[in-house]
Amino acid sequence: MELVILDSAEDIAQRAADVVEDLLRTKPDAVLGTATGSSPLPLYDELVRRYEAGRISFKDVTGFMLDEYVGLPADHPERYSAFMETHLRSRIDMAPGALHGPDALSDDLEAACRDYEAQMARAGYCDLQILGIGTDGHIGFNEPGGALDSVTHVGVLAEQTRRDNARFFDGDLDAVPTHCLTQGLSTIMRARRLLLIATGENKAQAVAHLVDGEVSAQWPATVMQNHPDALVLVDPQAASLLRR
Ligand SMILES: N[C@@H]1[C@@H](O)[C@H](O)[C@@H](COP(=O)(O)O)O[C@@H]1O
Questions:
Q1: Fewer CB within 10 Å, N or C, the chain?
Q2: How many domains, the chain?
Q3: CATH classification of the domain holding 114
Q4: Ligand 1 centroid from CA 67, angstroms
Q5: How many Å lie between the centroid of ligand 1 and the Cα of residue 132?
Q6: Where's the active site on this chain (predicted)?
């Protein structure tokens, strides 16, 4: 795992966009794994800028989202499918049906998970998976204590995660879903390359475990230590509890 500490979120966005641009140059029909949350937003803005400048095209790209809330109505703006549509898909030339997510509106969520995993398998899994990290060390919505070799599954959100994400629901904890569908850790690990972005002091503890800790289900992101090509981009605040 390669760790790079950069001065600001903007510098991280530039470096991360370089990684995406390099991939699209070598493989225009790449499979891109997308993350939600605030961490990748500067990256998405930079990708839109590079698309508008004619440097990159997503017209042949297929995308797979990491996760989705369960229990939000189809038109809820905080559904991750809506988030990705607003912040990335609708702003670039990616085809409308080309960004996939697990179907959290399905009557049979277990089947929806199996279908999503099969769909990713058919696509050959991701060339590059973009990741954020939860303050409790989750990636996707793989919360502490889950299996390290999980595939796409129905998950229960940790209390900490629901509190962290209440800011997207007008601060109303009761409005934050309790369940989700998420790619498993083994699904994520199948990506040829992982790119994790963490900014701000509230990520420092999770980043310290990710970089300096043992691989452990208590800090799910630590599985990335076993990935052959993982890049972690952090700002000085997120790096503030690192040993070295
Ligand atoms: N499921 C998402 C994660 O994929 C994301 O990494 C995390 C961090 O979000 P943020 O970047 O806003 O701190 O939030 C959510 O829980």
A1: C
A2: 1
A3: 3.40.50.1360
A4: 10
A5: 5
A6: 67 (proton acceptor), 136 (for ring-opening step), 138 (proton acceptor), 143 (for ring-opening step)
